[in-house]
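Quick one: structure for this chain?
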Amino acid sequence: MANPKSQKRGINYVIFTDLDGSLLDSNYKFKDALPVLSKLKKNNMPVIFCSGKSFVEENVFRKKMKIEHPFIAEDGSAIYIPKDYFKVKKGKLIGRYRIISLGVGYDKIKREIKRLRKNYYIKSYCNMSAKEVGKEMNLDLQSARRAKNRQFSETIIKADKKALRELKKKFNVVIGGKAIHVYGKKTSKGKTVKILTKIYKQEHGKVFTIGIGNSYNDVPMLRVVDKPVLVKNPNGKWADIKIKGIYRAKGVGPKGWTEAVRKFVLA
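Got it. Here's what it folds into:
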């Protein structure tokens, strides 16, 4: 899991990362991070996706990056652990994964949005075609279809403020890099990061966690890791997030991601 240098120090590194705007650039590319990803894979250092993306979306990028570690989908709604990854068996075994679910069902969120749309303006994935989602989010049609394939959360492009206030009574409503994320009240990236960190510690002893994000929905994750990292957004600015000990990378998206990993893991 760790390279010889880190093993001598008795430290195992685990990297929790957001995708959009962090490991992925505005065009969903990760070319700038490839050399570092290759080094991490060579040393079997876990890169854990912790994103608002769905299971099917994250799996596509896991395959492209050749990452075989656990991952967290839909803003902490569920943890997916390859079934033989840990000695300890946590979660419900479904197919190739053990799943720890914290989120509410997607249908519950859709029903509430449908009810609110009678009185308020809400533009969200559930009332958009894949073509419309693709145009709005700069996705090809196949990727847009995957983005709409959700289990625990909804993505809102635009909505009346009153509608969002109503949604907040029943769900978490958080601003992400490109849209507004709606998911269960008992769900957060922070909770799932803490669950996975505990399992890693049970398996490997001392663990040093790094969290890398770019937006406000990353705050719960950044608050619970040993080293929180914020990368710049395409506008060249950091999100206005204040967390003790946070490192503000100079680079945008994957360039900042690479900078941080080299500084805190591969130095």
